Structure to design on (548 residues):
């Protein structure tokens, strides 16, 4: 259960409700705030107090005065007129994240919605009624009008929803759970749609996926270092402390933990001794054949994935502030007979954070694709077989074809990661003349997560194949456990089937293994989130290091 107050919702809570299907409860004090604002705006509407969306038209028609007898019609028409979405529907877990984000905004107590509307939205979450929300159609200012209109219609007994896996109309969805639709009072339709909850919910889900993908990327990097006999000097704590970035320091620390006890890594002192021995007393330039430091795909893992971690943590701060914000317009002040006509619905914060998130996700893929090349290439992978063929090289292809997949996706990601937040196109008769495209930015991150999962699946397949060739005995305990988990679910690839089936099995194990650890660690992570920040990076990475 997650208790909602409007003030302390975390991205971990979002995922717990969205994926874990945790129920939510409402803080009574928050409901009191909701009621106070609702009564105030209803009084203003009855008295003819001029207020946008209460007794005026919407957008560029704000100059049109609407009498009280059209109060409900005004709100319902807004929903019908803006339920203009298209494209595929959001998955149920993403829809739940969107619903939760909107609900938490209402609990701030500044939107003017009724307690009945808030309770019904809570019932939808807790009883598994998931509005069908098309993914396309939001400009990200004035909020996510189109997707939230599709959500709001279900509260009114219209629109469509998924209940127990079955698509049905909104009225039947409510009736099937013994619920009655709400009748909208002054401003309620506007409050339901005029906010950033769709883009924020989508961004929160992609962010949490990003943390998981980063953890997997670091784990696979540790396997790669051992497979290729890499030097551990590059992960020396002292050097990373001198750089000073928390993400880099944290990634290096996790790598040291994952490599502990390995007999396959190379100590720097041994490299120096080998070079000195081969140089001997020569007075001329000598090719010793000793690489005293590794290529960037091994040596610079903390410097590449550390910025990814710091970017994720920055994005988490932005997303969590937005989750706990008043992103409506107008807002009803609690302590004065006034309203705030502003632009808190504008999604630029989430749009830009999602752009940063997209770049960070793409970078995970960039590194992983190059690591795939290093472990497969006969020119780079040391004594390993060409393309990790088990058998006769040339007769079998090994993972040659799987590399094409990783490289193709990594290239595609570079196009997808182009910023969306600067692609403003004016709309609404010039009223919405600078928009954020925040939902476009957030949706693009979900696609990047899918792509990076597949690149990491190829890398994981290559690492598993390589360990199967050299044997797991001299690897670190964490790597040996990782290999054993995979070996229980799949055999190495020996051209016995289409290679994509092998990669898909490895991908399933990588994701399932993380999900099991994540579920067990949720409460501990939640406690960390509520405590003071601890230097050294992400809660997810610290959990990984502890468990490994």
């Amino acid at each position: 259960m997650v208790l909602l107050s409007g003030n302390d919702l975390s991205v971990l809570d979002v995922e717990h409700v969205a994926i874990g299907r945790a129920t939510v409860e409402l803080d009574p004090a928050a409901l009191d705030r909701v009621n106070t604002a609702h009564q105030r705006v209803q009084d203003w509407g009855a008295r003819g107090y001029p207020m946008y969306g209460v007794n005026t038209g919407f957008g560029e028609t704000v100059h049109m005065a609407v009498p009280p007898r059209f109060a409900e019609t005004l709100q319902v028409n807004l929903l019908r007129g803006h339920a203009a979405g298209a494209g595929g529907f959001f998955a149920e877990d993403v829809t739940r994240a969107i619903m939760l984000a909107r609900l938490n905004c209402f609990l701030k107590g500044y939107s003017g919605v009724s307690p009945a509307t808030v309770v019904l939205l809570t019932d939808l979450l807790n009883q598994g009624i998931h509005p069908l929300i098309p993914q396309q159609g939001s400009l990200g200012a004035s909020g996510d009008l189109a997707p939230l209109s599709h959500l709001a219609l279900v509260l009114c007994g219209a629109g469509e929803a998924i209940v127990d896996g079955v698509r049905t109309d909104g009225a039947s969805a409510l009736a099937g759970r013994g619920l009655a639709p709400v009748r909208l009072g002054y401003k309620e339709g506007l409050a339901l749609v005029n906010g950033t909850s769709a883009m924020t919910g989508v961004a929160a889900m992609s962010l949490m996926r990003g943390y998981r993908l980063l953890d997997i990327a670091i784990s696979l990097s540790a396997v790669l270092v051992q497979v290729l006999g890499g030097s551990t000097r590059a992960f020396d704590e002292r050097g990373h402390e001198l750089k000073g970035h928390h993400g880099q320091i944290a990634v290096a620390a996790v790598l040291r933990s994952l490599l502990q006890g390995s007999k396959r890594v190379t100590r720097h002192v041994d490299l120096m001794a080998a070079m000195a021995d081969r140089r001997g007393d020569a007075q001329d330039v000598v090719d010793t054949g000793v690489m005293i430091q590794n290529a960037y795909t091994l040596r610079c893992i903390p410097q590449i994935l550390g910025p990814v971690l710091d970017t994720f943590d920055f994005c988490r701060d932005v997303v969590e502030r937005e989750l706990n914000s008043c992103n409506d317009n107008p807002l009803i002040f609690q302590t004065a007979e006034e309203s705030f006509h502003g632009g808190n619905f504008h999604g630029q914060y989430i749009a830009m954070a999602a752009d940063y998130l997209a770049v960070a996700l793409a970078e995970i893929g960039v590194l992983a694709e190059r690591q795939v090349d290093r472990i497969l290439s006969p020119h780079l992978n040391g004594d390993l077989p060409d393309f990790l063929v088990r058998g006769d090289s040339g007769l079998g292809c090994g993972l040659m074809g799987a590399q094409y997949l990783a490289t193709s996706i990594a290239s595609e990601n570079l196009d997808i990661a182009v910023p969306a937040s600067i692609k403003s196109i004016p709309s609404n008769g010039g009223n919405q003349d600078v928009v954020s495209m925040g939902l476009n930015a957030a949706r693009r991150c979900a696609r990047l997560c899918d792509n990076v999962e597949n690149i990491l699946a190829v890398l994981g397949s290559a690492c598993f194949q390589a360990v199967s060739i050299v044997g797991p005995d001299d690897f670190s305990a964490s790597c040996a456990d990782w290999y054993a988990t995979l070996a229980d679910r799949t055999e190495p690839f020996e051209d016995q089937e289409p290679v994509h089936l092998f990669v898909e099995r490895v991908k399933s194990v990588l994701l399932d293994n993380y999900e099991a650890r994540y579920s067990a660690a949720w409460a501990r992570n939640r406690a960390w989130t509520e405590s003071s920040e601890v230097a050294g990076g992400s809660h997810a990475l610290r959990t990984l290091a502890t468990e490994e």
Summary: Residues 438-470 form the longest helix (33 residues). The first strand starts at residue 2 and ends at 4. The domain at 2-195 is CATH 1.10.275.10 (Fumarase C; Chain B, domain 1). Residues 516-548 have pLDDT under 50 and may be disordered.
